[in-house]
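Why does residue order matter? Because the sequence determines the fold. Keep that principle in mind as you read this record.
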Amino acid sequence: MLDWLTRTRNRRELPEYSALRSTPTRGLPPDLAEAEESESFATSRENFERELRELPRRPLEDEPLFMELLEANGSGVVTIILPDHRGQCLPVFSTPFRAFDYVQTLLASGPSVRYLSSSPLELVQMLHDITRLASFGAGFAGMPTNE
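Structure:
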């Protein structure tokens, strides 16, 4: 399914979030921030969210929906060490493009990764397994943040 990700390509051929590369934590323009705080925006957002949760738009629980990153050497999932070094975060993406762009933009100097596609149920099981393993002191492939 993701064979196109493993082929050698020029970076310019692939979509990316160039704004993330140039300004990793930029704020919203004032007019957009004001619009998002309005009552009409909140109502519109709630209607849209409700519509997405209704069938047939809502994906089935066992259909692949998320992308996670795995260490290419098979040592485990890629996690991001939080800036205060008090924990780790599991990056989860909604599309292969976002996962690939994240790797190319923020993890390009790190070890190679593989991509894993999972259903909501599989993701919940993975989170449960990670939590259980972490309680036994198992290590994960933590990547430092760029801060």
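DSSP finds six helices and six strands in the chain.
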